[in-house]
Amino acid sequence: MLKKLISICVILSMSVLKVSASQTLNLSAECAVVINVYTGEILYSKNADMRHSMASTTKIMTSLLAIESGKLQSEIIVSDAMLRVEGTSMGLVDGDSVSLDELLYGMMLSSGNDAANVVAVFLGGSVEAFSDMMNKRAEEIGMDNTNFVTPSGLDSDEHYSTAYDMALLGAEAVRNPKFVAVCSAQSASLTFGNPPQKRTLYNHNKLLKYYDYALGIKTGFTKKSGRCLVSYAKKESSELVAVTLNAPDDWNDHKKLLDYGFSVLKNGSVRADIPAYLPVVGAVADKVRINLREHNYSFKSGAKVTYKVFLNKFLYAPVRENTVVGNCVYYLNGVAVDTEPVVTAESVS
């Protein structure tokens, strides 16, 4: 049982940088937003809550569900029914053998509608059932103005989202290391087909080359939606997700959004006060050293950062190094934003 041992409040005062986004940004996008991944704070918005079609940025959700399924190593035999979808393709044909992991790259790099459809049928049994899974996950994320109908993002009157909702989705997705590894890849060498053949897919997201701090995420385009883009960038401790919908000059729009976001964020760090040792029962030593790594944070304006440390009162021998013995929860203005584990710094026999 973990029992609270320490509850310490630390106040970190950050000066407010007053910059008028409307005066400094001149975007082509009909809808746009950039948010701080660490806090969820909106740093800039333009029609961010307007419902709009979002094209292939839809595949962010399809890919996230594929990763969260835990079935990435599953091998799938593609059927003709799975491929009944128009538009972009990773090159699948009836009878091909492909893994769910390879389909991730087919969606995020080549924007394959065929890959998205195969994922939907494999995981959901049908496109319609998979759409229900997408909408359930969207509800969990807090995407209140979103409705998914297709796994690929093909136009439909009932398939829509908002720039803000897509930013929430992007922020949720980049918390998954596998997702970041896929969407940040410039290219991927895969082996699939019937018989399997080596192939190389290339990422359509030019921001990976044009912007130093970019790490993905996804492009999209249909005649109805226009050019859509969700991007993720990291600079020091600052992490941003930017979204544009119907943006003729989306690459430059995202450079402006990300530059602005980084300019108004301040980075800092704090190391919580914890005891140097915890008591150990039944050991050659009566105590063990514990450690909590320094915590990095990033936020825009003056805010109160607090933390609470929760620890075991004592441990039973033997104790291994790097055993989790508690945690430290960090709060921004009273809202929990992160948790770090407290671990043993040595072994005790």
Question: Can you walk through the features of this model?
Answer:
- The protein is an alpha+beta fold and 349 residues long.
- The chain has two domains: 3-14 and 269-344, Sandwich (Peptidoglycan synthesis regulatory factor (PBP3), Domain 2); 29-247, 3-Layer(aba) Sandwich (Beta-lactamase), CATH 3.40.710.10.
- The protein has helices at residues 21-24, 59-68, 100-108, 113-124, 127-141, 163-173, 177-183, 207-210, 250-264, and strands spanning 3-8, 31-36, 42-46, 75-77, 97-99, 187-193, 196-202, 214-222, 226-235, 238-245, 266-270, 277-281, 287-291, 295-299, 305-311, 315-316, 324-332, 335-344.
- Helix 2 runs antiparallel to helix 3 (100-108), helix 2 (59-68) packs across helix 4 and helix 4 packs across helix 5 (127-141).
- The protein is globular and about 70 Å long.
Question: How is the topology of this model organized?
Answer:
Layout lengths: L2 E6 L12 H4 L6 E6 L5 E5 L12 H10 L6 E3 L19 E3 H9 L4 H12 L2 H15 L21 H11 L3 H7 L3 E7 L2 E7 L4 H4 L3 E9 L3 E10 L2 E8 L4 H15 L1 E5 L6 E5 L5 E5 L3 E5 L5 E7 L3 E2 L7 E9 L2 E10 L5
Parallel strand pairs: 12-16
Antiparallel strand pairs: 1-15, 2-3, 2-10, 4-5, 6-7, 8-9, 9-10, 11-14, 12-13, 13-18, 15-17, 17-18
Helix pairs in contact: 2-3, 2-4, 3-4, 4-5
